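quick q for whoever's on today - can somebody do inverse folding on this one?? i tried earlier but teh output was garbage lol. tokens:
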């Protein structure tokens, strides 16, 4: 049996739960300190303790929440209702009217009356319907009418690949490579390879072949200089774009049924697409092994492509169709290793260089900012040292970290060390938050790169900063321009999906204003980097990246014919 004190405690708990006289103890305690509230209609309120849960008008009025009252004509007196209706009518009368007449867009002519935008055509390429220029010479995005909006999109803005363009515009030249050429038998003689009018001797050789060069000849020549064995191989039998091992029999010129010897070799045939095969190549670089904080940017290009599906052909601000006025292709991704930064830099450089052999301009999407170094290296080799216009929250001219001189904080230091940048005229824009040392700014300034911080943009405005960038460019005496945009130049509220976010960045309209303000500058290359979808929300960072790339394409489109660079 519980003690007397235990019994009293149980009774107290029972009274608290079940109450006495049919009313719980906690209700009695609350009623003891509350004053009665007036009744209204069928309200069951008996004390002020209910004023924050009851929705009757007296309780709402008592707690200052009259606006929450859901009235009905039966509960509100006619004078009160008339007052409410009169107040609403007065509010409607004071609201300014909105004209439904169409107004010019940003002071320009309405897009539908623009004289330089004829109707597009639709063509079928490889079984896929695509929008095309009026004469069908430029293949554009897949037609939205023929492609599900939320279907899987493999290319940026549903653009064609180089394979589709090759099918539409066949190449008449190719590069033939032969290596590892050797005889199986121990026979004295000299082995040569001939294609067209070119003859070469040795285990490795390269030829350029045309549409009239249908065969490759292997010849074994004796000591007297006369051929003792010949093999004639059709070029159409070689695989395209890959190495293949072959074994051929050398036949006697006087008796083709007599096999003199056997020869083994590896062969590869690659199309030569020509210098200006396409206008702009968009290239993905799935690399983030150079990042110092949060990884994941290797998936940026894939995410940008997926979030570009809503982009339409006509760009309102520029009144142009950048994807249909130039032949723009999605050139796929660079096959770069994630296990070695130096090896990856070499692979990215070689791929960018290869794309610039058949594309007039290059736009790269990353990937971390390390990739700007090999991309600029390829661009500078074609056009000469470039003026850098760099949007970022960090300088990216930092010294080596952990004894690694190539990382995403040092691409522009590497460019400066290798004389890839013009002597003067470059500018950083959007720098903010914190850095390692004040010396970082002195180093960047010594490289000929001025700095506009995010505070400079916020306090002085975009136009004033654009004027600084333009005046800086004039110091370069007309050098080509490379535009590099790190998505973290935007404030994290606008673009959270990045590896090194910094508070207090640019807003979307400010960055767009900047990019459009560079019209007239000779932009020969551009990139958009550091989109890391693992930290994104609802794809807003990748969508921002896709639209920024579209703006870069529009900027390049507007200056390609007048910038003086082939």
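ok took a stab at it. sequence:
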């Amino acid at each position: 049996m519980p003690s007397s004190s235990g019994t009293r405690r149980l009774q107290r708990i029972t009274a608290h739960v079940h109450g006495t006289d049919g009313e719980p103890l906690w209700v009695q305690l609350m009623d003891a300190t509350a004053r009665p509230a007036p009744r209204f209609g069928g309200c069951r309120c008996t004390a002020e303790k209910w004023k924050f849960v009851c929705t009757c008008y007296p309780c709402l009025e008592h707690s200052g929440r009259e606006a929450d009252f859901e009235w009905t004509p039966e509960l509100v007196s006619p004078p009160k209702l008339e007052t409410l209706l009169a107040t609403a009518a007065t509010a409607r009368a004071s609201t300014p009217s909105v004209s439904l007449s169409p107004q010019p867009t940003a002071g320009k002519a309405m897009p539908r009356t623009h004289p330089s935008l004829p109707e597009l055509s639709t063509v079928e390429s490889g079984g896929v319907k695509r929008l095309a220029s009026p004469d069908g010479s430029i293949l554009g995005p897949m037609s939205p009418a023929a492609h599900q909006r939320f279907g899987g999109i493999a290319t940026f803005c549903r653009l064609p690949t180089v394979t589709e363009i090759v099918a539409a515009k066949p190449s008449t030249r190719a590069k033939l490579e032969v290596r590892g050429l050797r005889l199986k038998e121990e026979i004295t003689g000299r082995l040569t390879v001939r294609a067209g009018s070119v003859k070469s001797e040795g285990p490795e050789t390269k030829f350029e072949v045309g549409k009239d060069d249908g065969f490759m000849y292997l010849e074994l020549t004796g000591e007297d200089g006369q051929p003792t064995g010949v093999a004639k191989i059709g070029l159409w039998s070689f695989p395209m774009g890959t190495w293949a091992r072959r074994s051929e029999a050398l036949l006697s010129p006087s008796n083709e049924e007599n096999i003199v010897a056997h020869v083994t070799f590896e062969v590869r045939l690659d199309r030569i697409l020509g210098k200006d095969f396409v206008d702009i190549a968009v290239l993905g670089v799935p690399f983030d092994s150079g990042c110092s904080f949060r990884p994941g940017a290797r998936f940026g290009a894939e995410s940008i492509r997926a979030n570009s599906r809503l982009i339409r052909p006509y760009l309102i601000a520029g009144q142009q169709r950048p994807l249909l006025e130039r032949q723009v292709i999605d050139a796929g991704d660079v096959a770069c290793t994630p296990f070695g930064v130096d090896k990856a830099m070499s692979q990215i450089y070689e791929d960018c260089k290869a794309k610039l052999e058949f594309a007039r301009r290059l736009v790269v999407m990353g990937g971390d900012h390390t990739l700007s170094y090999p991309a600029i290296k390829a661009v500078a080799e074609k056009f000469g040292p470039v003026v850098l216009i760099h949007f970022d929250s960090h300088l990216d001219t930092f010294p080596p970290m952990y004894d690694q001189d190539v990382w995403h904080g040092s691409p522009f230091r590497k460019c400066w060390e290798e004389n890839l940048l013009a002597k003067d005229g470059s500018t950083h824009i959007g720098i903010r938050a914190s850095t390692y040392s004040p010396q970082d700014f002195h180093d960047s300034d010594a490289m000929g790169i001025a700095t506009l911080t995010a505070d400079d943009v916020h306090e002085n405005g975009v136009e004033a900063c654009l004027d600084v960038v333009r005046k800086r460019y004039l110091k370069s005496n007309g050098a080509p321009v490379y535009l590099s945009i790190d998505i973290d130049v935007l404030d994290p509220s606008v673009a959270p999906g990045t590896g090194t976010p910094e508070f207090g960045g640019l807003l979307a309209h400010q960055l767009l204003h900047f990019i459009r303000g560079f019209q007239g500058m000779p932009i020969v290359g551009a990139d958009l980097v550091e989109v890391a979808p693992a930290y994104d929300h609802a794809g807003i960072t990748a969508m921002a990246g896709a639209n920024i790339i579209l703006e870069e394409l529009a900027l390049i489109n507007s200056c390609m014919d007048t910038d003086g660079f082939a």
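fwiw The chain has 15 helices and 19 strands. also Confidence is low (pLDDT under 50) at residues 33-42, 72-82, 95-107, 147-151. so keep that in mind when u check it
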